[in-house]
Amino acid sequence: MYTMRPAGFEYHRPESLDEAVSLLAQDGDARPIAGGHSLLPMMKLRLATPGTLVDLGRIPGLDRIERDGDGVRIGALTTHDTVATSRDVNSTCPVLSEAAGGIGDQQVRNRGTIGGSVAHADPGADYPTVLTALGATITVTGPNGEREIAAGDFFTGIFETALEPGEIVTSVFVPATKGAAYVKHGHPASGYAVVGVAAVVEDGKGRLAIGGVTGTPVDAEVDSIESASETVASALSGAIGDTYASGEYRTHLATVLASRALTTAFERA
Ligand code: FAD
User: Fold this and answer.
1) Could you say which of 5, 109, 126, 241 is the most buried, measured as most Cβ atoms within 10 Å of its Cβ?
2) Ligand 1 atom index nearest CA of 33
3) Ligand 1 contact, 115 CB (< 6 A)
4) Ligand 1, atom 44, residue with closest C-alpha
5) Cα(92) to centroid of ligand 1, in Å?
């Protein structure tokens, strides 16, 4: 039956991280909710039917942004708009602010969070690609304590991550990076990346992450702008095709966007 109403669920709004972890541990069918911009539509379509929602919105400190050594730590509840406009993010890693400013529309940016985006792991999302290229680290807390996961290991499949049951993303650490660029071909209706390519240049060498083409961001090392297209084409296999873009088109787009992203990253480095 087609419905726009979610199935019934219990709702909790814990005031601490410990309480949230314990609520999630008590019910294997419970899910955290942050901005709700991905989870609520899935619940309305009954693609997700969690028995319990654990709202992270009242947990102190989860929306904090702070300089941390040679980088910036962004709390999981930080909205895309805050990442886009934060002076600390912009001065440390401007490409992340740029990418955040290109997510969806203003309403999505006002509610959606960086923790929700990485946990959701949509292949068309922007953060997974940019964070993979930047070599970011994702901090999570669960019943067995805290652990850190490299972004490159965090995204394991379409809507799949390295999160264990009951674990909550608490923050994302992004190393200071100036020589970087992110270029995407956004879907005209939603802004999701049909293809998005992030490039980082360090010590004269380029590193790319390509999102939207396969289930997870694909990374590749490149020596020069001239060789980028060929390197990207050979790094991609199993490209996703849908009614908007075939796998072949996505792969071609990735080679073009890779050259553009790399050119800008070299200019900024
Ligand atoms: P929620 O919807 O609250 O949660 C999503 C999933 O993550 C759920 O499974 C939830 O249990 C889990 N979760 C949430 N927070 C945590 C946490 N801290 N720890 C563990 N699990 C957690 N995204 C883009 O990248 N680019 C776009 O262009 C784009 N366009 C969009 C356009 C529209 C119209 C909409 C509705 C969304 C769009 N999005 C886009 C997605 C948007 O960025 C979402 O906000 C994001 O994917 C999910 O963040 P959220 O805070 O809303 O998470």
Assistant:
1) 126
2) 3
3) yes
4) 112
5) 24
Q: Which of 27, 38, 79, 171 to mutate to test the pocket of ligand 1 (most atoms within 8 A of CB)?
A: 38
Which domains does the chain show, CATH number per domain?
10-54 (3.30.43.10), 65-175 (3.30.465.10), 180-268 (3.30.390.50)
Residue 37 phi, psi (nearest 5): -75, -20
Which atom, in ligand 1's list, is nearest to the CA of 125? 25
The finding on whether 119 has its CB within 6 A of some atom of ligand 1 is: yes
Convert the pLDDT of each residue in 174-192 to its tens digit. Answer: 999 999 999 999 999 999 9
Is 38 touching ligand 1 by the criterion CB < 6 Å?
yes
Count of alpha carbons within 13 Å of 260, Cβ hemisphere only? 14
Is the CB of 84 inside a 6 Å radius of any atom of ligand 1?
Answer: no
pTM: 0.96
